[in-house]
Amino acid sequence: MARVSYHAELDALRQDLLRMGTQVEEAIRLAVESLKERNADKAQRVLTLEDEVDRMELDIERRCLNLIALQQPMAGDLRQIGMTLKVITDLERMADHAHDIAKVTLRLGDEPLIKPLVDIPRMAEVAEKMVRDGLKAFVEGDVELARAMVARDDELDHLFNQIFRELLMIMREKPGTVDQATQLLMVGSHLERIGDHATNLAEWVIYLVTGVRQELND
Q: For residues 145 and 136, is the Cβ–Cβ distance under 8 A?
């Protein structure tokens, strides 16, 4: 009976990990929407979501440690629990970056944007997809899906470099835009870092399935 409960708790952890990932995806989406729409309510919602993700991280961590201490899992189960602890740390950090993007929205207030936001929303879409695929690969043990995420991380890097060049040109031509351009650069940087954390998920998947650590972030 105890073993049935143990496996039920492993299944519950996987489901809660997916729920945590869903919260992170929503936080990323809302953070960038709040900036594009100048919507303070959406920005505040991101701050609330980040608090919820923090609580989920602590809860999942506690349950993982309890399973290790009380059930003494072997081999594959132990590796999965250990990787779950790694994944929730990356998810929590992604939520922190979404939080920081929302704070940019609140800092800018009603100040008109110096340029239409095109590449930043594209970055957000790619980042959300990476989070979703990373968690799917983790739960399903899909190494090929994990490795395919590298191309999307490269896409994020390309978009960020494009944003950097464009904003640098604007700042040179219009020095009065430096403050806001710097804030927008920070947003791009936060999204690029989310991609790095999502790539970490892919690395954990590969290790979970193969037992081999493979660096995907060059």
A: yes
Percent of the chain past pLDDT 90, that is, above it, reads 70
Query: Is 33 in contact with 56 (CB distance < 8 Å)?
Result: no
The CA-based angle 84-49-82, given to 5 degrees, is: 5
| Every domain of the chain and the residues it spans | 2-210
Instruction: Tell me if 86 sits within 8 A of 201, measured CB to CB.
Output: no
Fold of 2-210: Methane Monooxygenase Hydroxylase; Chain G, domain 1 (1.20.58)
Closest CA to 150 of 102, 113, 106, 201: 201
Is residue 91 within 8 Å of 19, Cβ to Cβ?
no
Question: What is the CA angle 200-151-89, rounded to 5?
Answer: 15
Query: Per residue in 87-98, pLDDT tens?
Result: 999 999 999 999
Tokens standing for 217?
């972030």
- In which residue are the tokens 């896409």 written? 155
Please give the radius of gyration of the chain, using alpha carbons only, rounded to the nearest integer. Answer: 19
Task: State the DSSP H helix or E strand holding residue 172, giving kind and residue range, or none if neither.
Answer: helix 143-173
pLDDT above 80 for 76? no
Q: Which amino acid is at 89?
A: T
Which residue in this structure is represented by tokens 């710097």? 182
Return d(Cα 67, Cα 81) in angstroms, integer. Answer: 8
Alpha carbons 20 and 61: distance in angstroms, whole number: 12
